[in-house]
Amino acid sequence: MNQSKGLIDPIGDLIHHKGYGVIHRYKNKILFLVTKKCAIKCDHCFRQNNISEFNFDLNFALKYLHNNPQISEVILSGGDPFCLNDKLLNELIKQVVAIESINYLRIHTRNVVTDPKTVCNSTLKQIKKHITKRHIKHAAIAIHINTKEEINNDVAKKIAEIKKFGISILSQTVLLKNINNSATDLAELFTSLNDLGVRPYYLHHPDKVYGGMNFQVSEEDGMNIYQELKQLLPGWLVPNYAIDGQNGKKRAFV
Asked: Is 155 exposed, middle or buried (0-12, 13-18, 19+ CB in 10 A)?
């Protein structure tokens, strides 16, 4: 495909796909694509063209973890894990953290912003239980949020609920042309998230995805915005700037 029109697999998911929704890029952590469903369709989503390739199978995933004890962190993504039935998600989490080598659990979601009611207290209670009983050392929910305007009362309330269960909250933001490609706008977003107790984690350069090239920002412009952002915020409030390659490897700038 002509790269000017975008790529079907812009970050190399298929290169590192081990089967049944299990993606293993890095030695000590693994990504499970546990569902194809999302609450909304994001036109900049890097999996919008290939999510149908991933059919998650929990038994396969658990066997893979048992066979690779060097893996200490499991990341649940998709789709959006909170689009799963809460009982199904709870059982999935229970079985994953029961594996002795797993110390860290992370859930990547946009639902905290787009459909907060799907982030059920039953799931949050279960995660807290696993932390309390030391089945895992740490759990985090990474929310995908791109603009300050997405933070409303329902979102703020859900973030506060999550924090009550002792779960860390991180944010991931995609730099998008004509949406948030302004250091001032990003600084306002990250300051607002920090006020809610959310740690800005990643600012992602837009992926060259087929169907989403209208959001593209050049790497030079992206780095310029990032350098300007560093002049507006204290260092600890500036997220890592990440550029994902087609080979599945990430370049991150601090």
From this structure: middle
Beta bridge partners of 74: 30, 105
Neighbouring residues of 172: CB distance < 8 A, sequence distance ≥ 6: 108, 142, 143, 144, 145, 201, 202, 204
**Single-letter residue type at 206:** P
Contacts of residue 247, defined as CB under 8 A and 6 or more positions apart, other chains included, come to 12, 15
Contact between 7 and 206 (Cβ < 8 Å): no
Taking the CA atoms of residue 139, residue 145, residue 146 and residue 152 in that order, the dihedral angle to the nearest 10 degrees is -140
Tell whether omega for the bond before 197 is within 30 degrees of 0, i.e. cis. no
Distance CA 83, CA 93 (A): 14
| Integer Cα distance of 235 and 9 in angstroms | 33
Beta-strand pair 22-26/17-19: antiparallel
**Residue whose structure tokens are 């977003």:** 189
Measured in degrees and rounded to the nearest 5, phi and psi for residue 204 equal: -95, 130
- Non-local CB neighbours of 169 within 8 Å, separated by 6+ positions: 140, 141, 142, 143, 159, 162, 163, 197, 198, 199
Read off the pTM.
Answer: 0.94
What are the start-end ranges of the H helices in the chain?
Answer: 58-67, 86-97, 111-114, 121-132, 153-164, 183-195, 219-232
Backbone φ and ψ for 156, nearest 5 degrees, come out as -60, -40
Q: pLDDT per residue over 202-218, tens digit each?
A: 999 999 999 999 999 99
Write out pLDDT tens, residues 109-124: 999 999 999 999 999 9
Task: Reduce the DSSP state of residue 21 to 3 states and report it.
Answer: coil
- Judge contact between 103 and 71, C-beta under 8 A: no
